[in-house]
Write a structure and sequence with these properties.
Blueprint (H helix, E strand, L loop, with lengths): L1 H6 L5 E6 L5 H12 L6 E6 L6 H10 L4 E4 L3 H5 L1 H11 L3 E3 L2 H5 L4 E5 L1 H16 L15 E6 H6 L6 H6 L2 E3 L1
Parallel strand pairs: 1-2, 1-3, 3-4, 4-5, 6-7
Antiparallel strand pairs: 5-6
């Protein structure tokens, strides 16, 4: 939400796009709602259980006066990334995702872990397990690399100017 606040002038209302079928959704809503006031933002959750419900959710967010959208990290939204990108432009609701591939599909920005680096680390763990190492004896790792990705084409289509300071902090700019 912090990066959206830098890009979207006078941002105050953020829609949280969540899949209530995903167990992580309640935690995501709680943490986002707790963080929002520190940024001068109010949040409201909008539930989607299938890709076919995305259009209705974006309609509801626009009707409720949301000024932007933050997507919960969920496979449903990865699957619907192209639809989300189209709805973002149609409803003029700048959208933030959790992974670069969603931004490559046309969403405005993402901030999250480097999924390829995680996949490489998982492969190493699988290899160790297959060689007989016990998972309980292996250390738990936390992500160490996070990526900020901005889609400049989408920003332009939404009439948003990305501040130069944010451009310099971005790991990847899509033009």
């Amino acid at each position: 939400m912090e990066y959206l606040k830098e890009i979207v002038p006078n941002l105050s209302r953020v829609g949280l796009l969540v899949n209530p079928s995903a167990k992580v959704s309640d935690l995501y809503i709680d943490q986002s709602s707790a963080a929002a006031p520190k940024l001068g933002l109010a949040t409201q959750a909008f539930q989607v259980r299938s890709v076919s419900e995305l259009e209705g959710a974006y309609d509801a967010m626009a009707k409720a006066g949301m000024q932007s959208v933050v997507i919960n990290a969920e496979s449903l939204f990865y699957q619907g990334k192209g639809t989300i990108a189209k709805l973002e432009l149609a409803h003029r609701l700048p959208t933030c995702a959790w992974v670069k591939e969603v931004v490559e599909a046309g969403v405005l920005l993402s901030y999250g872990t480097d999924q390829r680096a995680i996949a490489r680390r998982v492969a190493g763990y699988v290899d160790r397990i297959l060689k007989g190492e016990k998972p309980a004896d292996m250390p738990v790792e936390q992500p160490t690399r996070f990526e900020l990705v901005i889609n400049l084409k989408t920003a332009k289509a939404l009439g948003l100017a990305v501040p130069p300071t944010l451009l310099t902090r971005a790991d990847n700019l899509i033009e």
